[in-house]
UniProtKB/TrEMBL annotation:
<keyword id="KW-0560">Oxidoreductase</keyword>
<keyword id="KW-0288">FMN</keyword>
<dbReference type="InterPro" id="IPR051814">
    <property type="entry name" value="NAD(P)H-dep_FMN_reductase"/>
</dbReference>
<protein>
    <submittedName>
        <fullName>NAD(P)H-dependent oxidoreductase</fullName>
    </submittedName>
</protein>
<feature type="domain" description="NADPH-dependent FMN reductase-like">
    <location>
        <begin position="1"/>
        <end position="144"/>
    </location>
</feature>
<keyword id="KW-0285">Flavoprotein</keyword>
<dbReference type="InterPro" id="IPR029039">
    <property type="entry name" value="Flavoprotein-like_sf"/>
</dbReference>
<dbReference type="InterPro" id="IPR005025">
    <property type="entry name" value="FMN_Rdtase-like_dom"/>
</dbReference>
<dbReference type="Pfam" id="PF03358">
    <property type="entry name" value="FMN_red"/>
</dbReference>
Amino acid sequence: MKIVGISGSIVGSKTRTAMDYALRTAREKHEDADITLLDLAEYDIVFSDGRDYREYEGDTKLVTETIMAADAIIIGTPTFQASIPATLKNIFDLLPVSAFRDKVVSMLVTAGTAKHYLMAEQQLKPILAYMKAHIVPAYVFIEEKDFNRKEIVNDDVRFRLERLVEDTVLYTDAFAKVREAKDAEYDF
């Protein structure tokens, strides 16, 4: 199973802190999984210009091909101006419309206040659904007060992140079995 974590911003540390915790949990509990972190702050990604993702070069090609090869994706995003960051939206724009078909996608969202908790429901989930993702219904919303010195200090948040990882893996396994059964129906 290939799991890709996307830390969807080029600024700040909270989303990366939460993603590190989630992926560390995944590595500890699922040693057989191939787990990759794509921290968008560490890549030089060009703006989408409508080309097929395989036609790009450098970091852009690496990031998009890594995402396309994944079985499961955990998207971590901060909330900027009550929305997702442009860097994350650009990733979606670089990918084909059906990029997440047969992929399980889960989310963790960081924000300064509880006022932004619906951003995932009203913006991120519709984009993922449009791109054909199997969306893990429960996402983890983390507020500013849940962090201190680049550490998660809220036990409930840590528990919810662990549950998010488990749900992501369980959904991925379940959808793989469904696909296998569906493929077995064909006699060629």
